[in-house]
Amino acid sequence: xxxxxxxxxxxxxxxxxxxxxxxxxxxxxxxxxxxxxxxxxxxxxxxxxxxxxxxxxxxxxxxxxxxxxxxxxxxxxxxxxxxxxxxxxxxxxxxxxxxxxxxxxxxxxxxxxxxxxxxxxxxxxxxxxxxxxxxxxxxxxxxxxxxxxxxxxxxxxxxxxxxxxxxxxxxxxxxxxxxxxxxxxxxxxxxxxxxxxxxxxxxxxxxxxxxxxxxxxxxxxxxxxxxxxxxxxxxxxxxxxxxxxxxxxxxxxxxxxxxxxxxxxxxxxxxxxxxxxxxxxxx
Length: 283
Prior knowledge:
The protein has a domain at 96-282: CATH 3.30.1330.60. β3 (185-190), α7 and β4 form a beta-alpha-beta unit. It has helices spanning 16-38, 42-56, 73-85, 87-120, 152-155, 167-178, 203-220, 246-252, 277-282, and strands spanning 137-142, 145-151, 185-190, 229-233, 254-260. The longest helix is centred in the middle third of the chain and has 34 residues, at 87-120. Strands 1-2-5-3-4 form a five-stranded mixed beta sheet. It is 47% helix and 11% strand.
């Protein structure tokens, strides 16, 4: 007797609708929750803001900037613009800047006087030491710090980066003056614009090696904490004068001991360089 053939089972091709409906339900619930969270009670936010302003002594609102969020210097300018609009805060800020600048100026003058006393026995550089041909040390202020400039002709033989024997007395005097100054000192090497071609080196290597030699001497005096003195080479990129004469090129071949400021606002541009003839005439 032949077997009865089974009818093919019905296949439901729309089963995906069940899973789809479940997913849509869940998404709807999610969006409802997100919408509920997004609703802000503005009155309560305003009350909290006002209470915080009262607690911190800020009654007025800081003006909102249009456009993109300020970055870098623009953000800083926004802070100072806000302070400037408030007379009391502006006066306090200006007072702090003036006091810090006065301290830095006094410190620079004291460094100059101590160096002059150790090197020449007087509180001011003598006239003989101010002539461009004879002068080997300068003291000045710039936006980065108090700068003590030592001309290379007293420190190194031409084209060399090892300290000359006569350099020891000068650097030792500078080290004793700067002892306990409590600031970071960057020893900067500089050259003129004449290319240096020896042993495959350039002015970059020469300036860095000269700065390193002075740094090692300073650290070997054991007068400075570890990490408070470090070298840097700038080659011919930061000249003090145009490289258009032998005298100016000799001025640019130098090592600067930069006593760095704690804060850029410590700097207020001086009328003249400390220790030059004009300042001595005024005094």
